[in-house]
Amino acid sequence: SQLVGRTTVCSNPRPSVLDFNLPSITIPNLNEEVTLTRTLTNVGPLNSVYRVAVEPPLGVQVTVTPETLVFDSTTKRVSFKVRVSTTHKINTGYYFGSLTW
């Protein structure tokens, strides 16, 4: 608006923090269930296999699919889904866990 001197409307909706492909996962106001996707690029040995280890916070369930990522000479990038749900009906604080490959 300030650059062109008139009101403008963005045709694209504001992206969700869940859509950013970051190594950390932030879920504001989790009160039911969300599923998000992350994509990894292999920087390790050419033929690498990684298995997920999850330590969810108390009252939070985390499911990762697939549970194993396989990289080889033709597969350099792999996507996985993280499903997060909670039994907390009201979130009044921050909860921390870990997801490690």
Automatic annotation (TrEMBL):
GO biological process: proteolysis
A Gene Ontology molecular function term of the record: serine-type peptidase activity
Keywords from the UniProt entry: Glycoprotein, Hydrolase, Protease, Serine protease, Signal
Domain Subtilisin-like protease fibronectin type-III: from-to ranges: 19-101
Similarity section: Belongs to the peptidase S8 family.
Protein name: Subtilisin-like protease SBT3.3
Originating organism: Noccaea caerulescens (Alpine penny-cress)
